Amino acid sequence: MSEPLLETHDLAIGYQSRSTTRRVVVASINLRLEAGELVCLLGPNGAGKSTLLRTLAGMQAPLQGQIQIMGTDLYRLSPIDRARRLGVVLTDRAEVGALSVRALVALGRYPYTDWAGRLTAADEICIDQALAAVGATALALRLFGQLSDGERQKALIARALAQEPNLLLLDEPTAFLDWPRRVEIMGILRRLARESGRAVLLSTHDLDLALRGADRLWLLPPGGPIRAGMPEELVLDGAFQAVFESAGVEFDSHGGHFKVHNPARGCVDLTGQGLPALWTGRALEREGFIVNGPDGPRSALHIEVHNQSGQPIWRLRHAETWQDYPTLSQAMSGVKACFFPAIAG
Amino acid sequence: MPIGSAPSYNGSRQIATLGGLALALLAAFVFSLALGSIHIPLSEIVTILTGGESAKASWSHIVLTFRLPKAITAVLAGAALAVSGLQMQTLFRNPLADPFILGISAGASLGVALVVLSTGAATGFLSSVGLFGDLGLIMAAVSGAAAVTGLVMLIAQRMQQAMTLLLLGLMMAYATGAVVSILIYFSVPEQIQAYIAWTFGSFGGVTRRQLGILAPVIGAGLLLAGLLTKPLNALLMGEAYAQSMGVNVRQVRFWLIAGTSVLAGAVTAFCGPIAFLGVAVPHLCRSLFNTSDHRILVPASMLMGGLIALLADVIAAVPGSQAILPLNAVTALLGAPVVMWIILRRDNVRAAFAT
Fold it and tell me: Residue B53, SS3?
């Protein structure tokens, strides 16, 4: 195995207030980050993801243990040397005043420029490359304050890239973004790790994206211990489920996502084809009904989804009487009326 | 502001605007020498400044002994207050921050109040401090400002968060204000008047000899501000990001506070607690140059601060009359509406310090 970019030895992270009281959030952390890999740090709120990231970024001294970055103790590096190896994107909603995106990215050249911050031709090229790498070249002359959340995130990643770091740390870079933007940012980060031989570590709550996009996961349950591994392996041995499952939430190992688990209210037979039938099934599950397919056991309530000249129609059979409903919401009211006549009134 | 009109990054237009500002400052400087209770023609001013003989000997005396030191003081004080205000606004990421946010003027006020209000008639000191701009007042203000500054610096070295300092400065101002009002309560009207006169602020009390102290001190403070433009730009993103870019945040914070203390302390000691300039000029410059880049804002604040201080001083002297208005009243009364208008029109504070 090659020399890792980052390695922790028996690391304990947490908070030290005064000299006597210390609050250890997670202890005995032994992790490695290799060149070219994208790692997602996952864990429930309050488990210490941000604390770990801040500690790895050199912003919060560890309570115990060591962090080696390319063979050197992180906390012995000068601020400039650290900035040349490590770029960060924080969760703080960055406000920089009236700076263009290009000027913001240029701030990333801080560890390389002279005392006045003058940019050389090489610096300018590096800024162009950083902007191009995240697809933000067209944003260069816009004011940072006028960007959308997704564009801001790109600009901030470009700024970190301008430091030419070996390691990129991002604290929840996909928070506040809509789904297409999340996928886009993950794609950018993945490419950055693959193509440039950097290591990218990000914390996220997007379990689905992390499972699909990360080379490895770091799973941080509250109080530790932290688990590292391939996403698929962590799902197969149950570690992934153990960290996130709680009352009412259940991991669907087939679909690779979490489902809201409601106590069963009854059984419904469902027959029919196509999307209307599929989404009828989801509506029933959401309401807490167990849905029997065409081959399943029979129950007292039966729903058939028909196609009537291009329009779906819902036929309910209950106690040997048939009733038709033109919309799904009316059909659902009908279902509830069968089970709970008093409530539905 | 339309989205497309972002400031050009290497703006030659900004350099041109800086040049225009410098010319305006020069013009205001010469103009201010001509104005006063005795009108002296502009051509004579130029003659006197270039070392020639003026038509009347008294004119040379008036310009060189009174008006020139006053104008130079105004430019230096304006530049000092504007730059230190800019530094504090960036360090604390707070649009309301000014040079006195750390309690420097409160400290100076306390020093002056202690001297003016507590000495009493017995020592005979009162008669000497009654004269505006006397060395006794200056010494008192310097020691008061230095005491507060020293305390703040001591705390600043131990603090993790800059925000804590902001609160400490505020509390310090309350505490010293309380002491001052107790002193005022037990003072006779003459003493109170002498103290109030100091709080009005004035550029006129600085003699040529004192200028020999004030000028190099302010020069050093401004030079330090020039050296700190790079970390100041990094601090725009906040201390955490600045640190991640390689800024030694603690060290930079120390030097920023030291520079601000020297600049604001010196101005307060020699000219009184001059409000408004420090908070307003940085906003004017951000509006005018449409940027937060300190490589532009630091020189721009120096020029703009000097210019506005000169104009305020000219207006305070009420050209064509013998009356002299309190400088602090003029800066705020005339300046505040202008700044309000500019800020509301451009929506710039929101852009620079969005919450």
Answer: coil
